[in-house]
Specification:
Length: 285
């Protein structure tokens, strides 16, 4: 069986590729980057999700598709075009990476776009599985300068606690959905064992770094302005709306979701504390 992975050089996709190869599966990665560094054993297909011909070529001889589309301005178009080409190619299964509680955030472009893709998958007869992860632990690995410098946890995730998950658990769920039976038509919520809040994240980093870390709790306007220093304006607004939604509407996991993920992947979901300890150890090398 051959599996095509899109987004296979990113934060989640890399782990999916590694996990599939570890299981002994044949993996092809669709990428625009001719210089992409992939794990040994992974096959490369050069192409672009906005180029249906290159997607069709990448799907030649492929049995299943792991569809991950990054947060880009034309994310929805890329995803729907790829689903259409995959249906025409008669792939046996599509596992799509969506987002937790997507339908509750109609004002967040990349949330409601993913929900539209879910709706499209359900309208046709190609077998599919939807994975809905919460906030990625690994997003916080990029916070080293502000954590170790100013001593702040800057992401405005709020004080009530949100659903968050380790990307390795996402990869484990993807592998199960692609290599074992019984997952067609299923939607799985992927969340860690404990809600993550701004104060709890700051406390964990404080303990691990042996340094006082405060939750910044920035006003959303100030947070968006900071994002504009590193992101395009449209992406800064999208991310701001996501965090605003977390605070206004809540994004908490349920115990049932944790139990379902545990059963699906065969082990308890990883904890944020363990991610922090591993990350800090890497920083100290």
């Amino acid at each position: 069986m051959k599996i095509l992975v899109t987004g296979g050089t990113g934060k989640v996709g890399t782990k999916v590729v590694q996990a599939l190869l570890h299981r002994g599966e044949s993996v092809r990665v669709l990428t625009r980057n001719k210089e992409a560094k992939l794990p040994d054993g992974a096959e490369v297909a050069i192409g672009d999700l906005l180029d249906p011909d290159s997607v069709r070529s990448a799907l030649n001889g492929v049995d299943k598709l792991f569809l991950l589309v990054g947060n880009v301005a034309d994310e929805l178009t890329q995803a729907l075009l790829t689903v259409a080409v995959a249906r025409q190619a008669k792939v046996k299964h599509i596992t799509y990476l969506s987002v937790y509680q997507a339908e509750r955030f109609p004002d967040v472009p990349h949330f409601i776009g993913k929900y539209a893709v879910e709706t499209s998958l359900k309208a046709f007869d190609t077998p599919f599985t939807v994975l809905r992860p919460g906030y990625f632990f690994q997003n916080d690995a990029q916070l080293k300068p502000v954590l170790t410098g100013a001593g702040l946890y800057p992401n405005p995730i709020g004080k009530d606690g949100i659903a968050a998950v380790d990307v390795r658990d996402i990869a484990d769920a993807a592998v199960v959905s692609l290599t074992t039976g019984g997952h067609a038509g299923k939607t799985y919520n992927l969340v860690g064992p404990d809600p993550l809040s701004g104060p709890s994240a700051a406390a964990i980093w404080s303990e691990v770094l042996n340094k006082q870390i405060r939750y910044a709790d920035l006003p959303m306007e100030a947070f968006e302005e900071q994002l504009r220093q590193i992101f395009p304006a449209w992406l800064a607004k999208d991310v701001r709306l996501m965090f605003q939604g977390y605070q206004d509407r809540g994004f908490a996991p349920s115990n049932a979701d944790v139990a379902t993920l545990t059963s699906l992947i065969g082990h308890a979901p990883r904890r944020y504390e363990d991610f922090v300890r591993e990350t800090a150890a890497e920083w100290s090398k």
